[in-house]
Amino acid sequence: MQKFLKGIFLALSLVLIGQVANAAQINGTTAVTFNADTATIGASFGNGTKGKTFLENYTFTYGGVFDLSSAVISIALSNVSALTISSFTLSGNGNTYTGTKSTIGNTVYYTLDADHLSAGSYILAVAGKVTGTRGGSFGGNINVTAVPEASKIAMMLGGLALVGFMSLRRRRAETARVQGNMLAA
């Protein structure tokens, strides 16, 4: 009976430790909605979140080859409203891209640029820790730009060459006509 009670006590202890560990982590997932080619992202953490880590995931799907640029910023207001961003990453299609951190005074921001990404589903992740006594927040944006496929670029260049050829041919015909009129006169 004593072994049974020790086993139950151990199991309950492990469950409680797991609950405490989960309470120290704030997780969120948000589907990104683009307006034209831009979307805003951000999160706020209120009272009682100081000392907790967070991981905010922003998911989106893009249907063709594209370039992406994104930035997030957190501005500390003394120690009242503040957080520390520890990573800013984009992952999808088996690749991970890491943002670059910059700091100016109490302002911390990350930028992330990735070129020629293939169509598919992506996750833009912001991770960090809440350090303000009343929480903290961050905000940012995502901008995507479609990249023309090689076949479309070739067709465009072919079209420009055809227009140039037609213009040259028309100019030569006009020059020959003017010269013919001059000789006849």
CATH topology grouping of the largest domain: Jelly Rolls
Query: What is the CA-atom radius of gyration, in angstroms?
Result: 29 Å
Mean pLDDT: 82
How many beta strands in the DSSP annotation? 10
Spatial sequence of strands, sheet with the most strands: 1-3-9-5-6
Total of helices: 2
How would a crystallographer describe the biggest sheet?
5 strands, mixed
Compressed to H and E, one letter per element, the order equals: HEEEEEEEEEEH
β-strand amount: over 45%
* CATH class membership of the largest domain: Mainly Beta
Helix content: 25-40%
Shape: elongated
Determine the structural class based on helices, strands and strand pairing.
Answer: alpha+beta
User: What's the oligomerization state?
Assistant: single chain
Identify low-pLDDT runs: 4-23
The total tally of domains equals: 2
- Second rung of CATH, namely the architecture of the largest domain: Sandwich
**First and last CA, distance:** 126 Å
